[in-house]
Structures are given as structure tokens and as C-alpha cells.
């Protein structure tokens, strides 16, 4: 595993609640296609925000609009109280790291990191000191003389990050910076980026399509779909309390089945009546999607409270620390996730019978259009 970031001799601003960036009703079109549709967002100073969504949802276009690379057709972008909507990228206060790293192959690591400072004609002693501090920061102090081709993908990404920080920007933009790395390096580097961001207190916006990445690294997650924001919230809010069916299905795994509200406490799905707290306040007969997280289906014990169902195991996917069991519960196709220890204790295998409990407070309901 590659080395960790060292403690820097670089200080950052303290975290605070005041706005660092305001995106106000921004729309961006490419011909007749609306890539970003009337989007508004406020990012606090020192906050780490992830723009999350599928390909084509508008997250990268929004990031590029913030950077001035694709200026908005409508709306305003305000950074630190200054309207930057019409300013070119060179007049905006940000550093950016692209998915492709975009390092200069004919320059050493040190020259890549110091490129912006040289362009600004900073004194050589100041450039050298800043480059040393930044390479220390990203754990590459001993790699300054190498060229990008001599580095691993993770090391190249660290160089790109150091270069983005060299100008001491007020805003750091990350465009899927880890997608080209293998899983282990990606997980390691994202944790280090979060530590670094906390240490420097720099306002950061990262684009990703990786749900686990967004949930693990962000202070808030912005879920986008078809050019619009579906939900903004903490990782826990977005995962546990999705506001739309899209968010429920996109963020994490979800069992989703059509059903009908029976009364204020129950819903009907197939031949099963499920206790459901979310039915309170709904109208009898409402057509709904009934959503359940796989980990919220529980092996039955005397202490568990909820709807009890007898299920047949149709298949098992072993994933190391957890296992995913495909069930037939009274005709309902459900997926349940259990820890490895529970898999062995319950002897889950195709054809086995198991009693499960569906807690009433874990059943989510969303309107269904017939």
C-alpha cells in the first residue's frame, strides 16, 4: 500500500457555516439538450460536497460551470461573495483535479506541482519551498525528481492533487479523481483525501458515480438525475431517508415492489400484508412502491418486532464479510444481506427455509404512477 499523507507545514482556514459557494438557478444547454436544469446549491466554507449520479445526470457539467469551463446559460455562480458567472477560469479562485490527471509527461513531479507558481513568476525560493511542502503533504517528498510515467496511478493522482493545491485556492474541484485506480488504492486514497481536506479546511466539491465513495467521504451528498438535484443531505440522510424513488434505488441496494396502502398501519404487497409506519397519513388504496434495504430484512428471533415471513432461499452470493441471499417470501422476490457469521449460523443455502422479520419502521413508501 502506498504511503500516507504526512503532516504538512501548510495551514488551512477553519471550518465555518458561512457560504463559500452559491449556485443560483443555473441552467446549461448543449443545443436542445438541457444538461443542467435550474439547479441551486449552497456550499459552506470548509465543506466536502459530493455530486453523485449516473452518467449523463449533469454532475460533471455543473462542476465545469462552477470552474468556468462551461459557463451557464442562465443563473449565477457566486464564490466568496463575488459573482464569477461571467469570469474565465483563469480569473476564478479554484484548483481542479481531472479524472485523467492531466500531468505534463515531460516535466518532473516537482515541475508539475510548481507549474502554476512558475507561470505567476513567483520567486524561485518560494516555489521550491511550496513544492517541498506540498510533496510532503501528499507523501511524495522522495519522488520529486521522477517523471509521471515512472509513478503508479495513485502516485500520479497525488501529484495532480498537489498541483491543484499549489496556488492555495479557495475551492478544490475533483472530477471523478479516483475512477481510474484499482479498488484497494481507490479506497486508501479517498480516505487520505478526506483527512487532507479536513486538515486544510478547503471547500471541496467532488464528482463521482460511486455511491460508496460519496457516502464515505462527503459531509453532504448531492444526488443528481436528468440535470436536476433529487436530494441534498448528509450521507446518512440520503441513505436512510431517501426523498424520491430514484434516490432510494440509486444510493445503495433496495428491494422495490409495487403495493397498495391498506390503512394507516399496513400495506399490501402481493399476498402479504406488511406492517408499515410510513402508511400513516396516506389514503387507503394509494398505489405505492414499497422499498426495503437488504440489510433491513432480519433473521427472525424472539426479540425482533415486525411482519414475520417464511422464505425459501433461491440463491446465495458470498461477498466476504457479507452474503447476499435471494429469497422467495410468500411469492415476494426479496434480497437479504447478512454478515458472514450469520450466514454460517443460519446455514443459508439454496432450498433452505428461513423465517425473516420486516421491521415496520424500515419499510419506505413512494408514490406509484399506474
What are the SSEs and their pairings?
Layout: E1 19-30, E2 33-44, E3 48-52, H1 59-67, E4 74-79, E5 82-83, E6 95-97, H2 109-113, H3 115-119, H4 124-137, H5 153-165, E7 171-175, H6 183-200, E8 203-208, H7 211-217, E9 220-225, E10 228-233, H8 235-240, H9 245-250, E11 255-261, E12 266-269, E13 272-275, E14 287-292, E15 298-299, E16 307-318, E17 322-329, E18 332-339, H10 340-346, E19 353-358, E20 364-367
Parallel strand pairs: 3-8, 3-9, 6-7, 7-8
Antiparallel strand pairs: 1-2, 1-4, 4-5, 9-10, 11-12, 11-14, 12-13, 14-20, 15-19, 16-17, 16-19, 17-18
Largest sheet: 6 strands, mixed
Question: Helix segment count?
Answer: 10
Task: Count every beta strand, where a strand is a DSSP E run of 2 or more residues.
Answer: 20
Q: What share of the residues does DSSP label as strand, in percent?
A: 25-35%
Spans of at least 5 consecutive residues with low confidence: 5-16
Radius of gyration: 24 Å
> Which shape, going by the Cα principal axes?
globular
User: What string, H for helix and E for strand, traces the elements in order?
Assistant: EEEHEEEHHHHEHEHEEHHEEEEEEEEHEE
Spatial order of the strands in the main sheet? Answer: 6-7-8-3-9-10
End-to-end span in angstroms? 52 Å
Global structural class = alpha+beta
